Amino acid sequence: MLETVKLSKTFKDKKAVDEIDLYLQEGESVGLLGPNGAGKSTTISMISSLLKPTSGDVRLNGKSTIKDPSELRKVLGVVPQEIALYEELSALENLKFFGKIYQVKKDVLDNRIQEVLEMVGLKDRQKELVKTFSGGMKRRVNIAAALLHQPKIIILDEPTVGIDPQSRNHILETVKKLNEENGTTVLYTSHYMEEVEQLCNRVYIMDHGKVVASGSKSELLSILSSEDTIQVQLSKQSNELMKSIKGIEYVRQVEETNDGLRIICKKGSNILSDLVHATEILGIQISHYQVEVPSLEDVFLHLTGKTLRD
């Protein structure tokens, strides 16, 4: 339905996006992940026709949208990372304004506004000024604005950053309902891996402007089929122990946790024996040792060397 072909963007001497190929099939929910600076927002800006690429193409049903994005804009709703509302207007007034921008017919707009307000749980607050709303409520109005023209595709760029848990849950349920019940195609970026695991059928992982992996969740998890993830609880933390474990040849990643270490190593390696040896030398006790089932977070860490919130 929507695809990018070798999509690239250069700012001065910096290549922010480097020949990205991705696609969305009709009715899919697709995640786009990457650490800060990976190029996600730049990619989304180009896909949504807000930013012209340096090279490459964005195609809707096989037709380029670069020179003429009008057909794309008719079927696309975008929820930006930053709040895009008029704070001195009420939620209702904001939606009337955006409805006119989207050219929703007058005889349809009033009913449609009530439908989207109901969808985001703000029907009873519609006449209140946006400046009095919490961050979560503002983001919900942003989502309502993007849904006014009943888009076939919706792009959400980190829609749950810095909001309360209640609003976060409401947003996730709204996105899930849009995809599963309405058949809306979704492209979703987030700094919270559990959201992507909950909402998305396929995932693209970006780093340094490139797609470094893509596929279904099971396909991405298979990347770590040759590795084990070990969770170790310790009597105390130690930089010396971290250095010692990192120096072991078959250890790929070591991350400090609240009460110990998280170690990614070659499957079938003798990590327990080497770990016991290293802790005994430093007078540290192992209180718990567990081999974890791999998660998308493990795959992300393996591919980028960073946690999602870096």
From TrEMBL:
Keyword check for Hydrolase: no
Alphabetized UniProt keyword annotations: ATP-binding, Nucleotide-binding, Transport
Record bears the keyword Zinc: no
Compartment list: Cell membrane
GO molecular function, a single term: ATP binding
Entry-linked PANTHER family: LINEARMYCIN RESISTANCE ATP-BINDING PROTEIN LNRL
Name under which the protein is recorded: ATP-binding cassette domain-containing protein
